[in-house]
Amino acid sequence: MPASVRPISLDVSIMKQKQTRKKITKIFRRQYWFWSLIGVVSLGIAFVPIPSTFSQPVEKTLRVEASTFEFTPAVLSVNRGDLVSIELNSKDVVHGLYLDGYDIQITAQPGQIAILKFVADTRGTFRFRCSVSCGALHPFMIGKLKVGPDLLLMRGVGMVVLAVLTGVWSSRLWSAIT
Amino acid sequence: MVRYNLIQIPVIRTLLTNRWPQLIIRAFALGGFLLAILAGFVGTPVGSRNFAIIIVWIAWWALLIMVAVPLFGRGWCNICPIPMPGEWLQNGSVLRPLENKTGRGLKLRWPNKFRNIWLQNVAFTAIALFSIVILTQPHITGMVLLALILFAVAISFIFERRTFCRYLCPVGGFIGLYSQVSPIEVRVRDTSVCTDHKDKTCFTGNEDGFGCPWGIFPGGMVKNTNCGTCMECLRTCPYDNIAVNLRPPGTDLLQQRGRKLDEAFKAFIMLGSAVVYSVVLIGPWGALKSAAFAVGSFAWWGYAMSFLAFVYVLLPGIFYLAVRYISQNAPGKRKPLRMFTEYAYALVPLGLAAWIAFSLSFVFTNVSYLWPVLSDPFSWGWNLFGAANSSWTPYFSKYIPAVQVVILIVGLFWSITVIQRISGESTLSEHKPWRPWPVIAFSAFVTSGLLWLLVG
Amino acid sequence: MASRRIRVEWIARMIVLVLVLGLSSMAFASRWLNRSRGIDVHARMPESGGWSPDVLNVDVGEPLILRMISDDVVHGFAVGQSSQPPIDVMPGKVAEVSLTFDNPGTYTFYCTRWCGPNHWRMRGTIEVNGALEIPGTTDPPLYLTLGIDLDSPHEVPVDLVRRPSAKRSAALDFDIPEDYLTRDYYLSHSPYEAWRDLRNESSISQFTDGDIWDLVAWLWASNTTSEAISTGEELYAQNCAACHGETGNGNGVFARLVEDDTPADSSSPDFGHEIVAPTDFTDPPQMMGAAPALLHGKILRGGMGTGMPSWGQIFTKDQIWAIVDYLWTFQFQMEVKP
User: Where are the alpha helices (H) located in chain C, listed in sequence order?
Assistant: First the structure.
């Protein structure tokens, strides 16, 4: 549409966009230090290595019973460095156990206990699942193995706090953009 | 108002206005949908090997909640097969409007009393209550899909346009609300052009296209909630006044017009059910799973009542108390219920993040079921792609928890910024950032709870 | 213009029809075309129906093509007393097998993966029809020819301080008399009877009771081979351990389910049957009183009214003897130094 016929509202909105863009750049420059600080702190929370409390690695044998559709016990705890043997005892049909993160698995038939041996060298909380189709709720047959303290959860909660603080303090920036 | 009109790019303009790509994709989706129904009924009863279960609850669901909704808003509604047969019969054609063809159907107007999403809230809750059975039993999935399409076609014969999609579809209820975070919107470029246009063909239709199937007047559209991105208005507007804009995500959440209680409750239904699913499906408590599966038993009633109480009473109740505290201590008298409705929209990013994080718990773990299921959809011994005997392999299990944390934190941060904005709307005096702290605390607690349930 | 539109519309409708109906109808067409190739066999837990169909027919020498698929949990398929290796039948996955029988008769096929407490009931039959019916001679089972009553109690008073060891017996410089070394003697006598007979031999009155038990252990070990024992161990783990326990103590995962009290009222299907716990193979008073032929007979016939299945159709003679040989390792230390 030629400029003379173009409605005035279009011109005004274009001008408004230019003004807004200038304002945003000004605010960004001012708050550059704020955002760099937030960036550094969040990287710190995410990646700073947390030293583990030293505990002598021991051999741990954990007996897990698998039935449809749960593991008993479903929550296992070991310390970092332990030599873990999970004895899977299937109570009714063929079940399996796959451990997230470590990417290892075993299959157990009723009457034959299967043993999964590994060194728990990575800390965290890892879910283990049934790896052999055992019926309707098979995809949700889940338990969890805790190796040492749950660092990811701690970091996550740290990030929650950071997100709250950042969200509150940065409120002024967002009002300019939209 | 930062907007970039994507229609300026010729390739995009052609792709969106040309009817053939849309039709081919829609027909393909309808074929796949019918195949899923068939697989549900005649395929293997083993859920993890059935085409219906894997295609719908793993493949489609993952693409919907992780790609389609966050990026394209109600983009799925554009190609959804459920209303298609009904719409084709209503229009009397599958491609363009034909002369002298007004199609079949009574084309009644949906009654005013139901012109809200309460029915969709109920429909979604019903599916959520029976979800563990639907998700694992192929014939039940088949029945649900069949019921949806038959119902949609029946509604098309009675009511006008896409009444089913707008007021009845359980999926539409939540992707409508969540489409408000999308970075894409369909709006008019200049409202004054619409004022001068007498016929409003975007709404009534002309020889180039049908009137908006969603019953929206694009000239007055300020939010994505009901727009199914079908692009009919793009084809019918004689002034090229429709734009498909790229815009800052979540813009619609800050739009004060059109905030309603039904949508606010939807936000709680979604957030609450994400929490319940994280407990029941992903948690290590087998007794809860069995209770949720044994429909009709005493344990199941306990589960159902707890589910409903948490989602409809506890979660909104605590939120209401938080909001009431804010309203009592804030200058300017605003009714708590009004504030409740407004602040509820801040839960949308958190709810979407919760659903994406929850979905990550099972999507990449189980996506390897897709290969054998595509090779042998009915478990008849086929091997179309050579993968019929491939076994279950979880992908990325080492990295998923960290990704879940990132998504939840992003959702929380986004929600807090929206809380700030909503808080700023109501005060005329200087905005104090910590004033809405109860609602911020609510969001932080829910996020921490989800973190513990999913990665802790 | 309008007619062109209508033409385009019809092309569009055809495309839609092809994409929508084509996919599904192709599926069913191909299934209909392939229906003559093989029989679909569905495996379900016995509580849900077991094998369907559970009776198959084939002619002698003709291949029987089976497409097996499980509808719930992991099952397995094998044909009793045949060289056909067992095949896993996985949920939702088709396993195809082609069987050819050289001799007419009735064959039993069975599930090889524990699929619940009634797993052992999951059996079916294959009727192989042949032109010539050669009357087969079946030997009567050993326990019948020896006159052993499988069901009468055979508890004996034994008081063992230590596990009898065949290896230890080598230190005793003693040649066991010829009568004891025959296969018939071994089959028809329980260890306790052998011990008693040896005890009464005047030539070894100086040996202690424990020494004579070691001799019995050696005698038992000489009637078996290490290959047989390891075969028996494998068979035991796959088929027996679920009820009898991995350690043989009768406390397997399904033991609870077969040791209920005798039902009180006549409406129960188990009324009149005594349901007992699975045998504890580590219990000397029970095991030492059982002759090898008795164990062999129990496995062959099953326990009348108890939960013990009959394996006569499933295991070959050698397999049953291998299991019997393995069972003795719960009582005896059977390794002999070469």
Answer: 2-17, 23-33, 142-145, 166-169, 183-188, 191-199, 209-221, 226-235, 241-244, 255-258, 284-287, 292-301, 317-328
Nearest residue of chain C to residue A138 (CA atoms): C73
Q: What is the DSSP track for C317-333?
A: HHHHHHHHHHHHTTT-B
What three-state secondary structure class fits B118?
helix
Domain ranges of chain C: 39-129, 139-338
What is the helix (H) or strand (E) element at residue B288, kind and residue range?
helix B286-293
Q: Which conformational region is residue B347 in: left (phi greater than 0), alpha (psi within -120 to 50 degrees), or beta?
A: alpha
Chain B positions touching A105 (Cβ under 8 A) are none
Which are the contacts of C324, defined by CB distance < 8 A and separation ≥ 6?
A: C232, C292, C295, C296, C299
Contact across the interface for B47 and A138, Cβ inside 8 Å: yes
Give the model confidence (pLDDT) of C231-290 as tens digits: 999 999 988 998 899 898 888 888 877 654 444 455 555 554 455 788 889 888 888 888
DSSP annotation of C141 reads: P
**ipTM for the complex shown:** 0.87
Q: Which amino acid is at C151?
A: D
Nearest by Cα to C17 from B245, B312, B30, B169 = B30
Which residues are bridge partners to B188 per DSSP?
A: B242
Torsion angle, alpha carbons of A88, A92, A96, A99, to 10: -60
Residue in chain A closest to C112 (alpha carbons) equals A109
A150: its two tokens: 């749950």
Both tokens of residue B274?
């994400």
Distance from CA of A76 to the nearest CA of C (A): 22
Q: Using an 8 Å CB-CB cutoff, list chain A residues near B401.
A: 124-125, 152
Q: Is the pLDDT of residue C338 over 50?
A: no
Give the strand order in the sheet containing A114-119. A70-72, A59-67, A83-90, A114-119
Residues B66/B377, Cβ–Cβ less than 8 Å: no
Angle of the B19-42 helix axis to the C2-17 helix axis, nearest 10: 30
- Per-residue confidence band for B290, with pLDDT thresholds at 50, 70 and 90: very high
Q: Cite the DSSP H helix spans in C236-282.
A: 241-244, 255-258
- Which helix (H) or strand (E) segment is B58 a member of? none
Residues 6+ apart with CB under 8 A from C176: C198, C215, C218, C219
Of C73, C240, C246, the CB nearest to A94: C73
Which of B181, B422, B451 to probe the A interface (max A CBs under 10 A)? Answer: B451
Average pLDDT in chain A: 85
Query: Tell me, what amino acid is at B93?
Result: S
Q: Which of B365, B397, B416 sits opposite A168 (nearest CB)?
A: B416
Does residue B333 carry a pLDDT above 70?
A: no
Q: What is the biggest distance separating any 2 CA atoms in chain B, rounded to whole angstroms?
A: 72
CATH superfamily of C39-129: Cupredoxins -  blue copper proteins (2.60.40.420)
Tell if the CB–CB gap between C74 and A133 is shorter than 8 Å. Answer: yes
Q: Are strands C95-100 and C63-70 parallel, antiparallel or unpaired?
A: antiparallel
**Domain A59-148 falls under CATH 1.10.3720.10:** no
Most confident by average pLDDT, A132-136, B338-342, B446-450, C295-299: B446-450
- The residues, ordered by sequence, that sit 6+ positions from C120 with a Cβ below 8 Å of its Cβ are C110, C239, C309
Contact between B345 and B267 (Cβ < 8 Å): yes
pTM of the model: 0.89
Would you say residue B382 has pLDDT above 50? yes
Domain spans, chain A = 8-50+155-177, 59-148
C-contacting chains (≥3 CB pairs under 8 Å): A, B
Q: Work out the angle at residue C74's Cα, subtended by the Cα atoms of residues C71 and C75, and round it to the nearest 5 degrees.
A: 85
DSSP string for residues in A54-77: P----EEEEEEEEETTEEES-EEE
Report whether B41 contacts C28 (CB < 8 A).
Answer: no
DSSP secondary-structure letter at A108? E
> At the top level of CATH, which class does the domain C139-338 belong to?
mainly alpha
